[in-house]
Each structure stands twice: as C-alpha cells, then as structure tokens.
Amino acid sequence: MAKSGLIVFDLDDTLLNTSNVYWLARKLFVEKLSEELQINEDKLIEEFEKIDHLQMQKLKHSPYRYTRSMIETYKSVSHNINHQISEETLKAIKDFGRLILKNTPNTIKGAKEILDWSSQNYSIALLTRGENSFQKKKLHKNELYKYFDFIRVVPHKNAEVLKKFIQDIGFDCQDVWVIGDSLKSDINPGIEIGAKCILYGYHHPHYHWIQDHESVALGSFYKVDNLSDIRQILESDSNSSSESRSMT
C-alpha cells in the first residue's frame, strides 16, 4: 500500500512523559531547600525557574542543565539570606539531578498505538532536541526505534532545522504533518514551512514547562488532548485528499 506522506513527531511530552521525571527532581530539590532554608516552596520554584531559563540559553536541552540550575538556585538563595553552603546539600542536589539521567520517562497513553497505525500509512520521522545518546536511550528503553524510518537529534528546533531535515530525507514540506506539544518549537516551525500541524495538549498536574509554551501561533493548526484523536484527523485529511484527486 502506498504511503500518504511523512509525519514528523516530537519525542518529549509528545510521546514520552518526560516532564514527570524533571518534576520529581525539582520536587525533591524544593522540599530539601525549603526545610533547610525555611523559605516558602513557591518562592523557591519561582527563583529556580528564573535561573533555569538563563541556563537554558547556555546549555539548551542538555540533561545536565537541571542539576546546574538547582545548584545555582541553592547558591543564589543562600547568598541572599547569608546561609552557609552545605556540602551535604550539594551532594543531595547532584543526586536529584542524576534521577533525570537514570529514570527513563514512560510512554504517554496512546503513543505506541498512534505510532503503530501511522507507520503503516505514512513514513515516520522523529525530530527531537537534546543530547544524542540520551535521547536514543529513551527510544531504546521504550522500544520505539522500530516505528521510525528517520531519526534526528538536534540542539534546537526552528523552521530552518525542520525544513532541512525534511529535505534531507527526500520529502516536500507540503506533504508533511508535524506533531508535537510545543507551539514554539513544533507547530510554528511547521506552519512556517507549509506543513500541516497537530498540537498535542500535554498536561502535567504539577509541572508547566514555561520556556516552551509562551508563544502565539503563526497560523492555523489542529489540537488534540489525547494522542488517540490524531488518527481521526489524519484519516479525514486523507479521505478529503482522495476525493479531491478523484474529482480532477
């Protein structure tokens, strides 16, 4: 059966529940500092997010960034209240950071089902940000490699990076679907290059990835709150395209 084009999936918080791993590390960190420094947890989170935003500009999506952000937050807050830095606390913070490296995120409900169906009807690609070996370890442990025809790990994503990836693997942008959880790094780049886009409304009950979700859409796109709803959109589009071809 001829395939209908290309789907470019995002990985973190689209197929894998990655934010949960980061949330757990931050939760342990904030609880530790709140007890030691006697500071409200919300204030610590606010300070941490400011510092992590700055670290993001330097370290991008390195899995080691979060540890650096936690250490810098501890030093900054301690300095402000004249608290002496504890080597024991620094060690604990590094242990919290190692959880991100050790704990592989699980697949989001419906991820394998939509990948299985999509791979039978489309060519499937993965474009994900981060460190190459770290991202591929997630794929291996969740047995996701088998679904993808093309995989590329990049330090950042924008329209230029997305377009080059699509052209490198031999597709035209108008024959592509882009599926991800971020307006900034998935949907807007897709809109810019003329692809069709589906935003997955990832939601974590306690964690909001501020750096990636403060953007305004550059055009129209679909949105789903469940990965299982993606199939209906793709099938409807495929049927519409078939009807249009039969009328010409």
Automatic annotation (TrEMBL):
Protein name: HAD family hydrolase
UniProt key word ATP-binding: no
SUPFAM superfamilies: HAD-like
Alphabetized InterPro entries for the sequence: HAD-like_hydrolase, HAD-like_sf, HAD_2, HAD_sf, PGP-like_dom2
Superkingdom of this protein's organism: Bacteria
MF terms (GO), sorted A to Z: metal ion binding; phosphatase activity
PANTHER family per UniProt: GLYCERALDEHYDE 3-PHOSPHATE PHOSPHATASE, N-ACYLNEURAMINATE-9-PHOSPHATASE
Pfam families: HAD_2
UniProt keyword Translocase present: no
Keywords recorded for this protein, A-Z: Hydrolase, Magnesium, Metal-binding
